[in-house]
Amino acid sequence: MTAKEAAVMREVLSLFLFTARSAVVPWLEKHIILPAKMAPNSQGPFRTASRPYQREILECWNPSSGVNDCDVSAGTQIAKTTILTLGIAYRICNAPLPSLIVGSSKDWTKTEISEKRLMPLIEENPILASRKPSDSDRFRNMAMDMDGGMINLVGGNSPGALSGGSYGIVAIDEAAKLIHAGSEQAPEAHPLHLAAKRTDGFGALAFRYRSSTPNTPSHPFWLSILSGDQTRFHVTCPHCGKAFYLDFIGRPEDIEEYNAAMGLTLPSDYKSLIWDDARDGKGNWGEAKVRDTVRYICPHGGCEIREIHKAALIETCEPVKHNPLAAATHRSFIIPSFYSPTITFGTMAWAFLQATRDFFGLQDYYNSRLARPWQEFDVSVKAKDVERCKGEYLRGTVPFEPVMLLLTADPGERLTHWEVTAIAPDGGLFIIDWGTVLSSSEIIAEAFLRTKLYPIAGTDRKVYPKLGYMDSGYLTETQYDICQASKGFLWPTKGSEAKHGGVNQTKAASRPWLSLYTYPDKQAKDELYDARLVHGKNGGLHFPADADAELLMGHSNQRRDANGMWIKVANDHYGDCTKLALIGAWLLRSSGLL
């Protein structure tokens, strides 16, 4: 083992001991000077005062944070690439590991990351320059043999560049621009997944960082944002003192999404950014008047926040996790351009008006300014649709003689959600009870099942679930074990990507004696959310009069895009439980019991 390999090994072993490291931001602010070539408008000692949102993201680079995945969806002028470069700089001196930096293309990576940012940052900061190899041939723009670990830079749309090597750190910029080029003749994983696999050898020490403006809602980058904790930066209104996050709210879908995230009920005509009518006789907007009169409307009290308040407003920002069920090891951030110190309310308003000239302009505005994908929907489940499903019966009571009572469960990384659903003679789904347990194995425990006995309204009889279905997508073999141990009470299910078809009973691959029920996920959502919840067809979907906010939220904000595909929604675990009850109703119908 060479001296350098021994140093790397000592560093790796120190990470296993969870050695406390210097906090990232204080270290950067103490040691790092931003070169003019890297930051022509903010050269000098690195500071986060005008961009306080950077602090929470940068601290994810500290191994002591326990974060393995960090995803940042950010608008223009949020300094995404700068954050990546500074994170790498911190790790060079504090917890170095072999690192892979990925950009959208080789040329872009070379110019925008290496030559404009990383190389100047290293060469002009003595604390980083001291880690350079003495041989200049080993410090090149796409390969830097630094003390503590090699840093390689590659273009992300070359599968060959991502399919080899073992790295402790993989950092990807413009992640949403990485294109999946696989085919049936030459199958290949998506570049994002290929890059992530390069960290497999480092286990819990691995750190994967992805940043980008988003594009489509189905891209793996945006799906990873949704899987993370979806941190938003809340600011405090200078007038009423209440907190909220900045976003452009105009479409009904925007209002629904904001209401769901904030627990609000905004009026249907709410607009977050408004300005005076500045159109001339031909209907053309006057830029000067738009910029002069624009104000941001507080979603709590309707307070008008002017441009003069913006800098102080941003200074109050605090991170708030909007997906509390995400793994603690997976942070994700959504940061619109509102938070940039160089972009005014007037700039955001005028950019929107310019974008409305054509469809693609508006799409670009949502992607590059609001840091979220543009979507057109043909079905959108609104809060009023869910509220309309509330009946007159109460939780824990079955309002009729059911065909069957079903227990369904959706296991997750932190909690398992469960529901008890009564199937009506007309096929209607009536939610009777719901809750969470820490482990999916508790679902079949006698102590749990003993409490699932429910009175039938108007009678002295009680009923209990005689059959159950569990989603087997998470820790599949574990769920198979639990279903097998239930001795015919609980059965595993799995949604397929087929657009149509019925429920198929097959055998679990590793359990030939265990039946697995597969179903077309799209068709199930079409019936559950469109036909039943929105339009009340096929017997409808029903909640008790005292249904709590968590149950209702678990069925809210479902949307189907113009291509007929349902958008992934965070925290829809109760909806997934209900979907399995629908599968149970389908099976009852096919067996002639409905």
Give a structural overview.
- The chain is α/β, with parallel strands linked by helices and 594 residues long.
- It folds into three domains: 3-180 and 189-218, Rossmann fold (3-Layer(aba) Sandwich); 232-322 and 344-375, no CATH class; 383-590, Nucleotidyltransferase, domain 5, CATH 3.30.420.240.
- It is 31% helix and 22% strand.
- It contains 20 helices and 28 strands.
- The strands form seven sheets. The chain has an eight-stranded mixed sheet, sandwiched between helices. Strands 25-26-24-23-18-19-20-27 form an eight-stranded mixed sheet. It has a three-stranded antiparallel sheet with strand order 11-10-15.
- A hairpin with a 6-residue loop joins strand 13 and strand 14 (304-305).
- Helix 11 (287-293) packs across helix 13 (345-355).
- The longest helix is centred in the N-terminal third of the chain and has 18 residues, at 106-123.
- It is globular, with a radius of gyration of 27 Å.
- The protein starts with a helix and ends with a helix.
- The model has no long low-confidence stretch (mean pLDDT 91).
Detail the topology: elements first, then pairings.
Blueprint: H1 3-16, H2 24-31, E1 33-34, E2 44-45, H3 53-58, E3 69-74, H4 80-94, E4 99-103, H5 106-123, H6 126-129, E5 139-140, E6 143-146, E7 149-155, H7 159-162, E8 169-173, H8 191-197, E9 207-212, H9 220-227, E10 231-236, E11 243-245, H10 252-262, E12 273-274, H11 287-293, E13 295-297, E14 304-305, H12 310-315, E15 318-321, E16 330-335, H13 345-355, H14 359-369, E17 377-380, H15 383-388, E18 404-411, E19 416-423, E20 429-437, H16 446-449, E21 454-455, E22 462-463, E23 467-471, H17 476-485, E24 490-496, E25 504-508, E26 511-520, H18 521-534, E27 541-542, H19 549-553, E28 559-561, H20 573-590
Parallel strand pairs: 3-9, 3-16, 4-7, 4-8, 8-9, 18-23, 20-27, 23-24, 24-26
Antiparallel strand pairs: 1-2, 5-6, 6-7, 10-11, 10-15, 12-13, 13-14, 17-28, 18-19, 19-20, 21-22, 25-26
Helix pairs in contact: 4-5, 11-13, 13-14
